[in-house]
Automatic annotation (TrEMBL):
Residues 569-769 form the FtsK domain. Keywords: ATP-binding, Cell cycle, Cell division, Cell membrane, Chromosome partition, DNA-binding, Membrane, Nucleotide-binding, Transmembrane, Transmembrane helix. Essential cell division protein that coordinates cell division and chromosome segregation. The N-terminus is involved in assembly of the cell-division machinery. The C-terminus functions as a DNA motor that moves dsDNA in an ATP-dependent manner towards the dif recombination site, which is located within the replication terminus region. Required for activation of the Xer recombinase, allowing activation of chromosome unlinking by recombination. The chain crosses the membrane at residues 88-115, 121-141, 153-172, 192-223. InterPro entries: FtsK/SpoIIIE/SftA, FtsK_4TM, FtsK_alpha, FtsK_dom, Ftsk_gamma, P-loop_NTPase, WH-like_DNA-bd_sf, WH_DNA-bd_sf. Residues 1-35, 251-356, 941-985 are annotated as: Disordered. This is DNA translocase FtsK. It is found in: Cell membrane. Belongs to the FtsK/SpoIIIE/SftA family. Residues 251-260 have a biased composition (Gly residues). It is a multi-pass membrane protein. ATP binds at G586, S587, T588, G589, S590, G591, K592, S593.
Length: 985
């Protein structure tokens, strides 16, 4: 119902009824407020109090000191991110400690104070405590815990202090507390005594000292985030940091591995893979291109600036390199989908210089250097295989050549979009090491969400008034405000039937002047009735806010997308890989395309092309064009419904290939297979030259299923059902959107196999039931208001979809296309076409052969002839004729006239062989005698040329395309057609 999405702003707050109610209800107001305070999530009005002057003074001083600490160095912190109170306390303690410990060390009062404070607690450690506290304060001023993860440092520091105090206790004759605090202060303090005394009693002082030393080392590892196998690297980094010297020994993981340093373990898989490929990047030549070092290993980004996703912590502030230096161009085997480089070629020092001489968005220099590396120095293309690459194998040793049946070779040599005229050529998508995810700063910050507004208060009054007018003993106990709707909670008095409130639905709608009131009885998990009423002052949920949320940060999965916010204002995210397929439906203008934009943008923001690849199908032609050229695509955005159907068949083929691989290597899920590939755990047969690579997830998005279902309902349904039944384990996931959630589009089979649903506003309860199997979507208010029913859940969640604007999308797309170019697969359409030819015949092969024979021998293309001669129904005869047409055996329908037969009787054997699955070349040859244009199309297809331009059998005839979606209508079975007029039987 378009009406639902076009609802005009309502004014429940200002209705005279509401105003009167306000005046009429003060009697019970105090009781209700008390009840509300018990359960309400947000809305209790607090009396505004001025800030405590002492707190203000403290915070003022803290901000001044914090500002001073932040003035040095390049870290920037937004005003609202400052958390200066606690670090200022540490600062004050550090100053106090320095005065008592250092400057008044001989003063008896200071000694006594020390004995009962720092000294009494930590013993001799208290001498160093002012420094430790000062450093901690400066760190926290600059890296507040609300912004940075400081829990690790806190834990590490605590363990450090306890263990050092314990050691001080052991090495200072282990005094007993009975000897007095002054004595303890000269040893390890109370903490040292607690840490060491029991241990010493258990395993002797020497044993306890050993344990504490190990713990001390551990605390240092925790503080510096150093895994044991990275100790050598950290020490070198420290050395470089302190003395600014060049780290000659350890500029790459290769040196570590070769040198037998403790990092050897970390680089072992890389080294193993190098060994397998018979190449070595260990070299004394500093000019050697080390493509095998990871960014981490190469130091492209120092470890303290990286976060868990490999993204720079604050990419905007420090201008992240668009291209790492050439010596840092590395695949990163540490990521779940990144594979090591396969080809390493030496290059000259010049290349390194031109990359290394500045920031990497010096694209001109980068381009020059890439050209030199790819065009002049390397004996072919610069090859880093990543996942999806299509290598030029010229000049490579045989063992480096990818074999044709490589499991995942989604790349191709087809058209490449992404780099405009005169733009530097970005590296191929298969070069994951160079790839940096876009910064979330590209997405704008949304308006702050409100927990309560005057509108909410007015509605509470209106609801209360209705309940009172109808003498229902029920109370509005609170509400939770979401961006689009607010859910008001009603608790019933004893003995009051729920139906008494639900029966008031129309009156409530009337009172709040909204026809989109939705009643939940009860609110899941609560003994309360929920009334969801749209906010007249609704808020937009920015995708940037969703992706910046803690929830999103904590979930690094590349397929996790920002969905929006729920009714309680909490962020909602969803992992597409777990869905595993999603049906999105809603009437025009309800927000489907906006959701798909948010989804695709989320993927671009969080996943590298080596982790997620996409097939975007956009028959509407306008919605997804912004993503043309992004490196995550494996084929240009498909807008032609027929080609879309073929692409789905290709996906089935890809899925089958993946399954074959999983089966032959004994894995049940693609994630397990990928893990084993990365860890180099898969043993290939000795003769195999295959290079295993992890599979990326494949996300297939269809932004109007109805258009596809009109063109080739059976094929599309078959493909979708097959994909949805099997693709989960192979990492292939479908998102199907439609504005026509009718049973002919969302068929029972499709529905049964697409378990997750996202329903935007629809026009009728029937539509809502088609999508969700329950009513509710008909009460949504459009513009991104949705009900989300993830797989396995029986209750839908109401969410306001995240919004991402066109300029934001453009920024993200610009970032990713600058990073890498797409590598399209040519075979998505071509191979699929062949597959479709086989698939669409289905069980009718024999009939089709007979029909072909009949038509060719009689040179008469009549449906009713087929009907009579083959004794089949009209529908079947029509289908056979369509199949003959699709193989260019007969021409298109010409109304009631018989169709042209395009092949001669002499060509019949070739035609029959082609139908039986022989080579398409035969068909092309067969067709060539009859129709020049038809043969051109068939030849193009058989030669593997992507159908495009003049050769595009589908794209060239717009009228034909438009009409082709309708079933061919011929005379009905009782009528005579041209065949009948011949008088032959
Ligand atoms: N999440 C959202 N937040 C705010 N506004 C939204 C949101 N989603 C959609 N809208 C508004 O609704 C309008 C229509 O949305 P959208 O184009 O996504 O609808 P649709 O369901 O794809 O429609 P159609 O099927 O006609 O393409 C948008 O232009 C925008 O103004």
């Amino acid at each position: 119902m378009a009406t639902s999405s076009k609802s005009t702003p309502r004014k429940p707050a200002s209705t005279p009824r509401a105003t009167r109610a306000t005046a009429a209800t003060p009697r019970k107001a105090p009781a209700r407020t008390t009840a509300a305070q018990k359960t309400v999530k947000y809305p209790v009005i607090q009396e505004e109090k001025g800030p405590n002057p002492l707190v203000s003074l403290w915070l003022g001083l803290a901000h001044v000191t914090g500002g001073a600490a932040r003035a040095f160095g390049s870290e920037t912190l937004a005003k609202e991110e400052r958390r200066d109170g606690l670090p200022f306390l540490f600062f004050v303690l550090a100053v106090a400690g320095a005065i008592t410990e250092w400057f008044l060390a001989s003063n008896a009062v200071a000694v006594a104070i020390n004995a009962w404070t720092f000294g009494g607690l930590f013993g001799r450690v208290s001498y160093a405590l002012p420094v430790i506290l000062m450093l901690l304060a400066v760190w926290l001023f600059r890296h507040p815990s609300s912004v940075h993860d400081n829990g690790r440092i806190g834990i590490g520091l605590s363990v450090f202090l306890v263990t050092v105090s314990g050691l001080c206790h052991i090495f200072s004759q282990a005094p007993d507390p009975s000897e007095g605090m002054e004595v303890l202060a000269l040893a390890g303090g109370v903490i040292g005594w607690i840490a060491a005394a029991p241990l010493a009693a258990l395993i002797t002082p020497a044993g306890s000292a050993a344990v504490l030393i190990v713990l001390l080392a551990l605390s240092l590892f925790i503080i510096t985030k150093t895994p044991p196998n990275r100790i050598g690297r950290r020490l070198r980094e420290l050395y470089v940091y302190l003395f600014g010297a060049h780290d000659e020994a350890g500029d790459g993981g290769a040196s570590d591995g070769a040198g037998g340093s403790p990092d050897a373990n970390a680089t072992a898989p890389v080294a193993a893979k190098r060994g397998r490929r018979g190449r070595s990047s260990e070299t004394d030549d500093p000019n050697m291109l080390d493509l095998d070092a990871t960014p981490e290993e190469s130091g492209a980004l120092p470890w303290w600036r990286r976060n868990s996703s490999g993204r720079e912590e604050d990419p905007e502030s420090s201008a992240p390199p668009l291209q790492p230096r050439i010596e840092d161009r590395t695949p990163a085997p540490e990521g779940p989908f990144e594979s090591p480089a396969e080809v390493v070629h030496p290059t000259d020092l010049d290349s390194t210089e031109s990359f290394g001489s500045g920031l990497l968005h010096d694209m001109e220099a980068a381009e020059q250097a890439i050209k030199r590396v790819t065009g002049e120095i390397l004996p072919g293309r610069l090859q880093t295989t990543g996942l999806l690459d299509d290598e030029s194998t010229e000049g490579l040793p045989a063992f480096a050549t990818p074999i044709p049946d490589a499991p995942l070779d989604l790349s191709g040599t087809g058209a490449v979009l992404g780099a405009g005229e005169g733009m530097p050529t970005p590296p191929p998508a298969s070069d994951p090491a160079n790839y940096r995810l876009p910064s979330v700063a590209n997405l704008s910050v949304g308006e702050p969400s409100k927990a309560r507004s005057a509108v909410n208060d007015d509605i509470v009054r209106a609801i209360t008034d209705v309940l009172k007018q109808f003498s229902v003993d029920a109370t509005v106990t609170g509400f939770s405000r979401g961006p689009t709707v607010t859910r008001y909670e009603i608790e019933l008095g004893p003995g009051v039937k729920v139906e008494r409130v639900t029966a008031l639905s129309k009156n409530l709608s009337y009172a709040v002047a909204s026809n989109e009131v939705r009643i939940l009885s009860p609110i899941p998990g609560r003994s309360a009735i929920g009334i969801e009423i749209p906010n007249t002052d609704r808020e937009t949920v920015s995708l940037g806010d969703v992706l910046r949320s803690q929830k999103a940060m904590n979930d690094p999965h590349p397929m996790t997308i920002g969905v929006g916010k729920d009714v309680e204002g909490k962020f909602v995210l969803a992992n597409l890989a777990k869905m595993p397929h999603l049906l999105v439906a809603g009437s025009t203008g309800s927000g489907k395309s906006s959701f798909i934009n948010s989804m695709v943008t989320s993927v671009l923001m969080r996943a590298k092309p080596s982790e997620v690849r996409m097939v975007l199908i956009d028959p509407k032609r306008v919605e997804l064009t912004a993503y043309q050229g992004v490196p995550h695509l494996i084929t240009p955005i498909i807008t032609n419904p027929k080609k879309a159907a073929e692409a789905l068949s290709w996906v089935v083929k890809e899925m089958d290939m993946r399954y074959d691989d999983l089966e032959s290597f004994g894995f049940r899920h693609i994630d397990d297979f990928n893990r084993a590939v990365i860890n180099d755990e898969i043993q290939l047969p000795p003769a195999s030259q295959r290079v295993l690579k992890p599979y990326p997830y494949l996300l297939v998005v269809v932004d109007e299923l109805a258009d596809l279902m009109m063109v080739a309902p059976r094929d599309v349904e078959d493909s979708i059902v097959r994909i949805t039944q099997l693709a989960r384990a192979s990492g292939i996931h479908l998102v199907l959107a439609t504005q026509r959630p009718s049973v002919d589009v969302v068929t029972g089979l499709i529905k049964a196999n697409v378990p997750s649903r996202l329903a935007f506003a629809v026009t009728s309860v029937t539509d809502s039931r088609v999508i969700l199997d329950q009513p509710g979507a008909d009460k949504l208010i459009g513009q991104g208001d949705a009900l989300f029913l993830p797989m396995g859940s029986s209750k839908s969640i109401r969410v306001q979809g995240a919004w991402v604007s066109e300029p934001e999308i453009a920024k993200v797309v610009e970032h990713v296309t600058r990073q890498a170019r797409p590598e399209y697969r040519d075979d998505v359409a071509v191979t699929a076409e062949k597959k479709q030819i086989d698939a669409d015949i289905g069980d009718d092969l024999e009939l089709l052969l007979a029909a072909a024979e009949l038509v060719v021998n009689t040179q008469f293309g009549s449906t009713s002839m087929l009907q009579r001669k083959l004794k089949v129904g009209f529908a079947k005869a029509g289908r056979l004729m369509d199949l003959l047409e699709s193989r260019e055996i007969v021409g298109p329908s010409e109304g009631s006239k018989a169709r042209d037969v395009l092949v001669t009787a002499e060509q019949l054997p070739e035609v029959l062989s082609m139908i039986r699955g022989g080579s398409t070349a035969g068909a092309a040859a067969a067709g060539s005698g009859a129709s020049a244009s038809a043969s051109a199309g068939a030849a193009a297809a058989s030669a593997g040329v992507p159908a495009s331009g003049a050769d595009d059998r589908y794209g060239s005839d717009a009228v034909g395309d438009a009409l082709s979606q309708y079933p061919e209508v011929e005379a009905d079975s009782s009528e005579e057609d041209a065949w009948g007029l011949t008088g032959r039987e």
